């Protein structure tokens, strides 16, 4: 038994991934070096992708790897390097003790409350928890996206296009 | 003729409208001609009406619905006209005096650049006064009652550019307004208890013994218990007598205001700022007599309450002596006559109060003649001399023979010297007071009669005898002025014979539907006494002003404080301004202060607090998103904890 | 496995992200922290999708939408950041105070 | 003729749109079209008044159009929001009053030279709103137009007002805005309480609007109130809510301070609209919702109404005595007059309710006339301060004369509309509250005091103002004065011209509140 759960492959995977995610998250908060931070960020995203796969959401997991661990992380690293090089004072000590402590307490209370609720609530659970989906989730998702959520899907497309155009316009250098 | 009664007030109204429409374009002669003609026709009609009434008795009122606000007859207000012997008499007097004053004004107002406007107002007044007289119900009466008040306001303030005239007009309106409000309340209470405004139904059928059947305010006993007792005066607990007294006194307050009785007499002398014909018509002969007419019209109401009629009598008697004693010392010729009017109206009220209905009305008629005469004669004097100060006159007998003769007739009538008109009516009143057992009032009346004779002959001697002190060349104002004077002079001389104790023509005429009030029997001794008192007054004036230079001044000095009191009108005006006008103004000022600084101050303070608070809170917006986020997190934490605490989730 | 461990993981990851978003001075790190919070939400969505009484893929679809929108957010956010950096030559959160007072 | 009320609202609105399309330079055109846009509805309103069926108590000229349906708004009931119009004996005279006052205000606005186009647009919208408020037969419609009057008068005050116009306009907006919110709460509470009550009672009573009991339609509510009554407690609470709104809206003491400030800082045309028509809304609300729909509430708070009324009568009159500005004096005078109406509504008598409508119409006409004449003299003398004036009768005989007529009418002189109104109100008052009404009659004396005192210092006396050579009333100025004086005298001499219309409805209401 591991923390009250039977030791199965799944459980072990969960705990390993959870460890990776939380550790990477904490590193991300404490590290200074840009490259190290990028690494930690990748760790968080990859760990989350693993969790998705444990949960049977293979497709979402793959997407997570491709978009977050790949694209967004790289984007962030580039941005960090782009802005980092010009200003050295950026590495001054992060929020002093008081602010950090106060924020920590506040966050801790909220997270503690959520954890308490998570623990105290009796969640209705499906009888077939292990392998809930009879078909490939890709098929199911495709079905949902193109039948139930067609309009939303199209809206998201429009949103992405708009965001890209907007980003280009905002980031473009002003013509002198 | 009675069917044409509506035409009597409508003719002056038509003249008013014509004059109003044509404005200043109309020439003086045309304006005066139209007006005089209209009133003259009214006068002829009135004669016919009096004849009709004498021959056939009064007619039932002719009414038209005017305003409907409820169901049944109680819910419909009507207007119309009614002719009784009392109305008919008043119609005759009003139209007669109006006609003469209209004629007189033609000369008096000649050259005034608002000549036509003056006749407009006069016509409006005559319309209102005649409308008042023919009113078949109290509400219509009140409407015209107010209208005559407004005409008086307009005419007193006719020379608006004189500050005194403007102030006097305002004072006249406001003081009479106080009385009007009393009448207003009285009318409403009468209506609520009787369900009607009609004079005829108001006092019940002729079968009612006292003529008065107000049933104890039963309608006023509405669902009282529902409301706070603090705001609810339970009329239901009053017995009928107390209620009748209350209503009668409220009605009498209206009469006090209009007829310038103490304590609301202060406006009438000031009203002399108006043109003299106005004083003659409105402030002597007609409008101020409306109060007496009101009491006469509501006579059954006063008869039903001994308290109310005693009050009327006492107020009347007191006013008579008070005003007469003030009249003794005034320097302004019009003011003396004005106080004389107040005093004579007091006599009429005294008569009404002691129950002598016919005597009161009789005096009203004779007084209308001789007082209009005195005013017009005074107007003639003022017209000739352009001053109102008695001590700048003198010796006018030579220059103004007609005025002198007619003034003398009027003065003798006022003094109560037989056989002039005033003697018969005033003696009637004094006899009534004596025989009904009001000995104190009789004595007051007698003293007032002595004063009356003294002050009017003081005016006579100062004006007409001796030598002229001014440097003008006084002359008579032409036929338009002298004809009315002569006509009134004749009436003042022989007018009393319409109701001598030996041939009570007027008494029979007024009481054609059965006796009203109390008719004093002829009493030779009392007649002799009043004649002697009148002569005594004349003798006093003669000795003071004709025998020896400066005797009057010495006499005044010996009287000392009394003279000062009388000369300053017993300081009533000053007293009122101290205890009423000043406090009202002060309270108004305090309220204004409260309004601006306390009530509105609180409002503005609330605004200021909001503004200041907003400015203060503004600085907490630092623009640091992370700080906002931190605060939000704590807010969220608190909310979550509260939810967990009250058990909403777990 | 049960639902709770995943929810707990999501809560902790959310907490870390929140802490970062509220304390970090560098705007990019703040953005990264926000991404972590979104990921925490995604974990919850997928977990509910898996452990629901009648399991379905709705949660996964939402997670996909979330990812798409997060991508858009990152794109716009970084664009704003670059623009701001060009003007102020800084990527410090404290310098973003144009909206004060 | 059936849709005449719709025309009353549409014509000003469409005219406003038309003016918006015009060039601001075309001032003459704008004035002409604006005047026409107010004159035509007035003609329609007068025609409707003439054709009004006197005996009937039902709403006349009904018109309604559904606008929006909210399913399951309350207890599975559907809420239909509609634009519905209809007038009865109480609202018909007020609709005509709006027409007359607005047309005359448009004439007066010929003197406005600044931003003419937007002035006329806002005036037209205000006119539309006022018509809508009085012609509405639906709670939503009523509230919609009430808010539109608020917005348009706000702009009229804040753009064309006097020295402290922004202060006054903000105060106006806040006070009346709060009143609107309170009123909205009352209206919602009214509709929902009736719906709940009707649903409960529907088992035993057949209601006119079954099976959908949630209605905003005023005639339906009136039909219901004759069959079922809300519980006394609910009526009392709702009545208090309405009363609070009315007290603010009608500027009763102590919520009155916005009115003098508003009048002091508005131009004359706006003052005529506000004093002549807008200030009648509050008491109309009290009659319409308080007396008609909440009879038990009115009975319960009758004494409170009477006391508040008497306080306003005396307070307004006393402050008016000390007022130094003509416009403030008129404002306080109108507060005093409206206090009398409150007293009479509290009396719950038919004659009191009839008198209330008389007084609303009469004081609308007289206030408009007073503002007009005072404004006309101020065009020439450049001052509203009573103490700075004097002897105006000399140079401005016509304007001074009309001013005197207006003042005497306000004092309650018989032969003019003020008297018959005051008389009816006092008869009602004395029937129920003799002692309070007796105190209230002091207001009659004080009214004579402040108005005649002000007149004495303005038109009488020696000439005070430096400008002595002034032109008297122009042709355009004659029209409002002649029309208003004519109407005031007409109602005074033949009150049944108004009474015939009001009578039936007043009787019906009084019968319901047990008067």
Characterise this structure.
The complex is a heterotetramer of chains A (176), B (650), C (101) and D (515). Helix content of chain A is 73%, strand content 0%. By secondary structure, chain A is mostly helical. Chain A is globular, with a radius of gyration of 21 Å. Chain B is mainly α. Chain B is 70% helix and 2% strand. Chain B has helices at residues 7-22, 28-56, 85-108, 115-134, 138-156, 163-194, 199-202, 240-258, 267-270, 276-285, 290-297, 299-304, 306-327, 333-354, 357-385, 396-399, 401-415, 421-435, 439-464, 479-494, 505-510, 524-547, 551-559, 561-567, 572-618, 625-645, and strands spanning 62-68, 76-81. In chain B, a hairpin with a 7-residue loop joins strand 1 (62-68) and strand 2 (76-81). The radius of gyration of chain B is 31 Å and the shape is globular. In chain C, 76% of the residues lie in helices and 0% in strands. In chain C, helix 2 runs antiparallel to helix 3 (58-88). The radius of gyration of chain C is 17 Å and the shape is elongated.
The separation of the N and C termini of chain D measures 34 Å
Total count of helical runs of at least 4 residues of chain D: 21
Assign a percent range to the helix content of chain C.
Answer: over 70%
Give me the Rg of chain D, rounded.
22 Å
- CATH top level class name of chain C: Mainly Alpha
What is this structure's SSE topology?
The complex is a heterotetramer of chains A (176), B (650), C (101) and D (515).
Chain A: H1 9-30, H2 34-54, H3 58-84, H4 97-120, H5 137-148, H6 150-171
Chain C: H1 3-23, H2 27-51, H3 58-88
Helix pairs in contact in C: 1-2, 2-3
Chain D: H1 4-21, H2 27-50, E1 60-74, E2 77-87, H3 91-108, H4 116-135, H5 139-160, H6 165-201, H7 218-225, H8 232-249, H9 258-264, H10 268-276, H11 281-293, H12 295-300, H13 302-322, H14 326-347, H15 350-381, H16 392-395, H17 397-411, H18 417-432, H19 434-458, H20 475-493, H21 496-512
Antiparallel strand pairs in D: 1-2
Helix pairs in contact in D: 1-2, 1-4, 2-3, 2-4, 3-4, 3-10, 3-15, 3-20, 4-5, 5-6, 6-8, 6-9, 8-11, 9-14, 10-15, 11-14, 13-14, 13-19, 14-15, 14-18, 14-19, 15-17, 15-18, 15-20, 15-21, 17-19, 18-19, 18-20
Short description:
The complex is a heterotetramer of chains A (176), B (650), C (101) and D (515). With 101 residues, chain C is mostly helical. Chain C contains three helices and no strands.
Describe this protein with a few key phrases.
heterotetramer; A: 176 residues; mainly alpha; Four Helix Bundle (Hemerythrin (Met), subunit A); 2 domains; 73% helix; globular; C: 101 residues; Helix Hairpins; 3 helices; elongated
């Amino acid at each position: 038994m591991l923390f009250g759960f039977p030791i199965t492959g799944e459980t072990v995977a969960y705990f390993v991934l959870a460890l990776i995610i939380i550790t990477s998250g904490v590193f991300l908060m404490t590290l200074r070096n840009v490259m190290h931070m990028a690494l930690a960020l990748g760790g968080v995203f990859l760990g989350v992708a693993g969790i998705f796969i444990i949960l049977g959401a293979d497709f979402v997991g793959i997407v997570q790897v491709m978009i977050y661990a790949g694209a967004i992380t790289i984007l962030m690293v580039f941005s960090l390097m782009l802005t980092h090089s010009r200003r050295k004072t950026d590495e001054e000590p992060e929020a002093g003790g008081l602010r950090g402590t106060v924020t920590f307490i506040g966050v801790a209370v909220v997270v503690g409350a959520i954890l308490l609720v998570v623990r105290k609530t009796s969640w209705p659970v499906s009888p077939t928890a292990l392998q809930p989906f009879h078909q490939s989730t890709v098929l199911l998702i495709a079905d949902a996206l193109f039948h139930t959520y067609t309009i939303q899907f199209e809206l998201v497309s429009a949103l992405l296009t708009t965001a890209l155009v907007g980003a280009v316009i905002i980031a473009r250098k002003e013509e002198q | 003729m009675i069917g044409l009664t509506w035409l009597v007030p409508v003719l002056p109204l038509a003249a008013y409208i014509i004059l109003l429409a044509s404005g200043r374009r109309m020439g003086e002669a045309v304006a005066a001609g139209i007006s005089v003609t209209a009133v003259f026709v009214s006068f002829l009609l009135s004669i016919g009406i009096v004849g009709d009434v004498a021959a056939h008795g009064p007619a039932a009122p002719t009414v038209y619905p005017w305003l409907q606000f409820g169901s049944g007859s109680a819910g419909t207000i009507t207007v119309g006209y009614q002719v009784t012997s009392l109305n008919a008499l008043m119609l005759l007097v009003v139209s007669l005096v109006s006609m003469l004053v209209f004629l007189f004004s033609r000369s008096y107002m000649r050259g005034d650049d608002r000549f036509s406007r003056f006749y407009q107002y006069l016509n409006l007044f005559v319309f209102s006064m005649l409308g008042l007289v023919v009113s078949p119900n109290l509400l219509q009466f009140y409407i015209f009652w107010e209208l005559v008040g407004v005409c008086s306001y307009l005419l007193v303030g006719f020379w608006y550019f004189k500050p005194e005239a403007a102030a006097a007009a305002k004072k006249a309106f406001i003081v009479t307004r106080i009385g009007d409000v009393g009448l207003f309340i009285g009318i409403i209470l009468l209506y609520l208890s009787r369900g009607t405004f009609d004079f005829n139904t108001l006092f019940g059928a002729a079968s009612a013994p006292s003529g008065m059947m107000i049933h104890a305010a039963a309608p006023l006993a509405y669902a009282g218990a529902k409301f706070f007792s603090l705001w609810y005066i339970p009329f239901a607990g009053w017995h009928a007598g107390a209620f009748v007294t209350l209503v009668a006194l409220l009605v009498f307050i209206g009469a006090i205001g209009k007829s310038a009785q103490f304590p609301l007499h202060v406006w009438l002398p000031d009203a002399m700022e108006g043109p003299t014909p106005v004083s003659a018509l409105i402030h002597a002969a007609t409008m101020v007599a409306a109060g007496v007419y009101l009491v006469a019209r509501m006579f059954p109401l006063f008869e039903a309450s001994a308290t109310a009629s005693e009050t009327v009598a006492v107020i009347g008697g007191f006013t008579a002596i008070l005003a007469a004693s003030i009249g003794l010392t005034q320097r302004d010729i019009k003011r003396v006559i004005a106080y004389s009017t107040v005093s004579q109206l007091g006599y009429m009220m005294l008569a009404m109060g002691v129950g002598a209905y016919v005597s009161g009305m009789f005096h009203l008629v004779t007084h209308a003649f001789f007082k209009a005469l005195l005013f017009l004669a005074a107007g003639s004097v003022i017209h000739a001399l352009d001053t109102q100060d008695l001590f700048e006159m003198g010796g006018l007998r030579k220059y103004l023979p007609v005025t002198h003769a007619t003034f003398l007739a009027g003065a003798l009538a006022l003094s109560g010297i037989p056989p002039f008109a005033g003697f018969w009516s005033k003696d009637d009143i004094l006899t009534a007071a004596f025989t009904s057992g009001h000995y104190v009032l009789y004595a007051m009346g007698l003293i007032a009669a002595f004063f009356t004779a003294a002050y009017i002959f003081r005016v006579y001697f100062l004006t007409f005898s001796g030598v002229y002190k001014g440097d003008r060349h006084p002359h008579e104002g032409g036929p338009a002025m002298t004809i009315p004077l002569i006509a009134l002079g004749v009436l003042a001389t022989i007018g009393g014979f319409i109701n001598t104790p030996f041939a009570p023509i007027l008494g029979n005429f007024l009481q054609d539907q059965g006796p009203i009030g109390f008719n004093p029997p002829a009493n030779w001794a009392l007649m002799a006494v009043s004649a002697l008192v009148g002569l005594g007054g004349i003798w006093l004036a003669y000795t003071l002003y004709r025998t020896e230079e400066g005797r009057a001044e010495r006499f005044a000095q010996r009287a000392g404080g009394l003279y000062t009191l009388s000369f300053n009108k017993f300081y009533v005006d000053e007293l009122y301004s101290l205890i009423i006008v000043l406090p009202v103004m002060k309270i108004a000022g305090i309220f204004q202060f409260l309004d601006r600084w306390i009530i509105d101050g609180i409002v503005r303070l609330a605004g200021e607090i909001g503004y200041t608070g907003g400015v203060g809170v503004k600085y907490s917006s630092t623009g640091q998103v992370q700080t906002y986020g931190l605060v939000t997190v704590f807010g969220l934490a608190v909310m979550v904890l509260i939810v967990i605490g009250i058990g909403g989730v777990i | 496995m049960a639902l709770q461990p995943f929810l707990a993981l999501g809560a902790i990851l959310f907490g870390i992200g929140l802490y970062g978003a509220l304390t970090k001075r560098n705007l990019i790190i703040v953005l990264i922290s926000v991404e972590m919070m979104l990921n925490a939400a995604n974990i919850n969505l997928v977990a509910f999708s898996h452990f629901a009484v009648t399991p379905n893929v709705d949660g996964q679809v939402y997670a996909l939408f979330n990812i798409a929108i997060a991508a858009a957010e990152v794109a716009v956010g970084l664009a704003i950041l670059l623009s701001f950096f060009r003007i102020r030559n800084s990527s410090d959160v404290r310098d973003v105070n144009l909206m004060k007072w | 003729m059936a849709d005449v009320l719709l025309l009353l609202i549409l014509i000003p609105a469409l005219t406003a749109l038309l003016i918006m399309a015009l060039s601001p330079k075309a001032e003459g055109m704008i004035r002409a079209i604006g005047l026409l846009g107010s004159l035509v509805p007035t003609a329609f309103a007068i025609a409707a008044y003439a054709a009004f069926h006197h005996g009937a108590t039902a709403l006349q000229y009904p018109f309604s159009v559904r606008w929006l349906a909210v399913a399951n708004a309350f207890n599975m009931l559907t809420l239909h929001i509609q634009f519905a119009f209809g007038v009865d004996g109480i609202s018909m005279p007020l609709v005509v009053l709006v027409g007359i006052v607005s047309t005359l205000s448009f004439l007066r606005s010929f003197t406005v030279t600044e931003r003419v186009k937007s002035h006329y647009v806002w005036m037209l919208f205000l006119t539309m709103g006022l018509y809508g408020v009085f012609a509405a037969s639906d709670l939503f419609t009523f509230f919609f137009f009430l808010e539109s009057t608020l917005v348009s008068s706000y702009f009229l005050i804040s753009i064309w007002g006097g020295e402290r116009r922004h202060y006054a306009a903000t105060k106006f907006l806040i006070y009346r805005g709060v009143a609107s919110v309170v009123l909205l709460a009352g209206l919602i509470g009214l509709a929902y309480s009736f719906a709940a009550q009707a649903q409960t009672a529907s088992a035993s009573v057949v209601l006119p609007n079954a099976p959908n009991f949630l209605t905003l339609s005023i005639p339906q509510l009136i039909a219901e109130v004759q069959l079922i009554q809300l519980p006394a407690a609910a009526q009392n609470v709702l009545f208090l809510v309405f009363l609070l709104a009315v007290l603010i809206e009608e500027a009763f003491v102590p919520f009155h301070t916005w009115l003098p400030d508003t009048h002091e800082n508005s131009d004359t045309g706006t003052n005529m609209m506000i004093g002549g028509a807008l200030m009648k809304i509050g008491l109309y609300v009290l009659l319409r919702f308080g007396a008609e729909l909440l009879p038990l509430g009115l009975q319960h708070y009758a004494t409170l109404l009477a006391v508040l009324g008497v306080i306003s009568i005396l307070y307004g009159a006393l402050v008016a005595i000390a007022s130094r500005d003509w416009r403030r004096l008129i404002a306080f005078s109108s507060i005093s007059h409206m206090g009398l109406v409150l007293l009479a509504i509290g009396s719950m008598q038919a004659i009191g309710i009839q008198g209330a409508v008389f007084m609303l119409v009469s004081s609308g006409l007289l206030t408009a006339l007073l503002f007009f004449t005072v404004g006309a003299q101020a065009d020439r003398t450049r001052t509203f301060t009573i103490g700075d004036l004097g002897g105006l009768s000399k140079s401005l005989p016509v304007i001074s004369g009309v001013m005197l007529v207006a003042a005497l009418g306000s004092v309650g002189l018989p032969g003019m509309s003020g008297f018959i109104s005051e008389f009816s109100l006092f008869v009602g008052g004395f029937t129920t509250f003799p002692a309070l009404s007796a105190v209230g009659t002091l207001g009659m004396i004080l009214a004579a005091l402040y108005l005649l005192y002000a007149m004495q210092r303005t038109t009488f006396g020696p000439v005070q103002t430096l400008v002595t050579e002034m032109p008297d009333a122009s042709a355009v100025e004659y029209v409002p004065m002649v029309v208003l004086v004519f109407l005031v005298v007409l109602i005074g001499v033949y009150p049944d011209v108004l009474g015939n219309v009001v009578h039936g409805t007043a009787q019906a209401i009084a019968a319901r509140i047990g008067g």
